[in-house]
Amino acid sequence: MSGAAQSAQAAPALQQARPQRYHLLLVLLHWLLALLICMALFMGSQSMAPMANSDPAKLEALRAHMMVGGGILVLMVLRLLIRLLTRHPAPASTGNATLDRLAPLMHWALYGLVFVMAGSGIALSVMAGLPDIVFGGVGALPESLRIYPPRLVHGLVSKLLMLAILGHVAAALYHQFFKGDHLLRRMGLGKR
Ligand code: HEM
Ligand code: HEM
């Protein structure tokens, strides 16, 4: 049999070998990270940012936020490594070529936006000396953190991340309920 004919036969076999679901660790980390990221976005914007730095509760809020933010960074790096090292289901189709090209870009954008959030948060806390103030009890918070440029990046990118997550959830629900292709199963438990 010619090489071309052999690879033509091998192609469907390879496609069949694709798992039906993402790796179990990716699935567990996806839902844990979704919860932690939504919590950090909600608590950060609704409760911590509006709080005056002179409020005694601010240090506790910052401590919790910085620990959850650092945890998100570690888990997201771990998830990215597992994502690069494991096999995943064949790309899902919407039936529209432009939307199909957009899907992987949106997935990488979610990783990118989370990394920019963690990076700008860490840069901000280093510039403002937060590790000593928040965890070491040394010194006091400045009147506002908005004088530091990474604070602007952190605030703006948090809004972009919220929009990206809304788009991601809308796309997942569109697949699930309008296309009826059970996309959510790919991020679920059960036979791989
Ligand atoms: C903070 C929230 C979230 C983030 C950062 C996030 C991130 C991601 C990323 C990066 C992927 C691509 C696959 C991968 O790299 O492993 C993905 C896939 C997926 N997510 Fe999310 N996700 C979030 C929330 C949600 C929610 C709330 C839902 C359900 C409504 C959902 C449903 C899915 C589904 C079904 C897939 C598989 C898509 C496919 O196979 O094409 N995600 N998610
Ligand atoms: C990785 C995920 C993270 C998310 C989703 C997140 C989310 C947020 C949000 C939504 C705000 C409020 C922004 C606004 O409404 O203007 C905020 C503020 C802040 N975040 Fe994060 N953050 C993350 C990581 C971090 C990390 C790792 C640190 C530091 C180690 C950090 C430190 C801060 C600080 C210092 C503020 C400013 C509070 C203020 O102005 O009073 N964040 N974050």
Describe the structure.
- The chain is elongated and about 60 Å long.
- The model is unreliable at about 1-5 (pLDDT under 50).
- α2 (about 25-50) runs antiparallel to α3 (about 55-85) and α3 packs across α4.
- It has six helices and no strands.
- With about 190 residues, it is mainly alpha-helical.
- The protein has one domain (about 5-185): Fumarate Reductase Cytochrome B subunit (Up-down Bundle), CATH 1.20.950.
- The structure holds protoporphyrin IX containing FE (2 copies).
- One protoporphyrin IX containing FE binds next to α2, α3, α4 and α6.
Q: Strand count, sense and closure of the main sheet?
A: none
Total helices: the number is 6
- Which CATH-level-2 architecture? Up-down Bundle
For the secondary structure, the number of strands is: 0
Q: What is the percent of helical residues? A: over 70%
Q: What is the N-to-C order of secondary-structure elements (H for helix, E for strand)?
A: HHHHHH
**Whole-number radius of gyration?**
21 Å
Bound molecules: protoporphyrin IX containing FE
Number of domains: 1
- Provide the β-strand percentage band: under 5%
The rough form would be described as elongated
On the 0 to 100 scale, the average pLDDT is 92
What separation lies between the terminal Cα atoms?
A: 33 Å
Low-confidence stretches: 1-5
